[in-house]
Amino acid sequence: MRRARPLSAQPEIRPTPLAALGALELPTSLHFVRSHFGVPPLERGAWTLELAGAVERPLTFSLADLKERQSVTKAVVLECAGHRRNEFRPGAAGLQWGLGAVSEARWTGVRLADLLAEALPADGACEVLMQGVDRGPHKASPVDVRFARSISFGRAAGGDVLLAWEMNGRPIPPKHGAPLRAIVPGCYAVDSVKWLGRIEVLTRPFSGPFQRVDYRLRESANDGDGAVLHELRVNALIVTPSAGARLGSGVVELSGVAWGGRGGVESVELRAGGGAWKAAELAAPGDETGLSHWAGTLELPPGEHTIEVRAHDGDGNVQPAVPEWNVLGYANNSIHRVPITVWSAAA
Q: Disulfide: which of 191, 232, 310, 329 matches 184 by Cβ 3.0-4.6 Å?
């Protein structure tokens, strides 16, 4: 299957082909790519990771040091916060992602919680900052900045956040964050910092530009605050049939994928033309943090139809009918709709 056309060449920004999401294991070459800056020049042998800040024992690790520890492999869905931004009305500023800024991969690494325990964090720790070695300009700073994000200390110490060096059983490719990147299951991919060079335990909330200015759910241009974006929202996509497909009359077979935050996916429903919702068959994901595949059928007469899918998560959340407006166009998890035509050979 061919790779999708890039939205940007430098830095590379490229979606996953929608059809590829139906595969039981997505090839690494088709995983979506999103970076704010270019791939930094790195030598794996010279790379080190610092763990510092509000800790009793600051530590430095080589990649070999990390690989000597117990490793974990997890299938994890990563979704760009700007996925489906081009569906907002009125339009939202920013990279105009359509479908495809979501993928699943198997990531292998060590638990961040284990390294934090070795460093002996201070009692007042509130956040853990993860900083990449990539850097570049940002509108909020007169000088170049490094890409950095923080998550709550409780989240970091919870046991499921990985510092990964392998992707689908092989070393992570440079564009996906080699030699080491964070993987934060159940959160938007912005928290899974690539090219990780420093981890810092904080006793005050982080206020860097990618936390204070970007990746916030602002309701208006005058909203100077807005909630910081972290947790994934429940979501589902129709993979087949594709938009504009012409199908024989009778029973139409549908399939696709669903995912959510730590609440998982509880159920998926289908309908056509605003009619009654019908339950789809939902397969359990190979890993609780991975994609859930679903399938179902709709009986449709000849004509033009719009088929829809929506998912519910284990916390009672359901996809909304339209994108929930925010100025920067983040976290669109609205119902996915696909137009198709059903024809009758006998007509």
A: 191
